Amino acid sequence: MINFNKNKLINMTLDKYYDTFAHTLDTSDFVPDKFNKKICKYIFKNMRKAFRRIDKEDRKYQSLVNKKERKKQREIKKLQKINEKEQKKLKNQGKINIFRRLFKKKVRKSADSNSNS
Fold it and tell me: In this predicted model, which residue has the larger pLDDT, 92 or 48?
């Protein structure tokens, strides 16, 4: 399953990183290499921190999504159990009605046969 939330967060982070890096390229002509290397290290360090934050937020988001999904599944199971109970009840009522109909027919027949004799 594709994790759209994490992809969106990563894209936002990379956009900021590239924007920051573009600003350093503009200054690379007149800033010494020693400072440019320090700046690049600083940018990469912050980008790694940002990715760690993204991972942490994504874990929270995924746990919420999983909780919601489990809750939905529980609700579906409850509804299925209720539905099964109702179907059993209806089947049992149908059987009882069939027995009542059969019993009434037998009683009527025996009553009719007694009155005829």
Answer: 48
Domain containing 41 equals: 4-87
- Is residue 59 assigned to a domain? yes
Residue 40 and residue 70 in contact, taking contact as beta carbons nearer than 8 Å = no
Percent of the chain clearing pLDDT 90 (strictly above): 9
Quick one: DSSP state of residue 31?
S
Tell me whether residue 16 is exposed, middle or buried, using C-beta atoms within 10 angstroms of its C-beta: 0 to 12, 13 to 18, 19 or more: middle
User: What letter does residue 14 receive in the DSSP assignment?
Assistant: H
Q: What is the mean pLDDT of the chain?
A: 77
Residue 85: half-sphere exposure toward Cβ, Cα within 13 Å: 6
CA 16 to chain centre: 30
54, 13 in Cβ contact below 8 A?
yes
Residue 112 lies in a domain: no
Number of domains composing the chain? 1
Query: Is 41 among the domain residues?
Result: yes
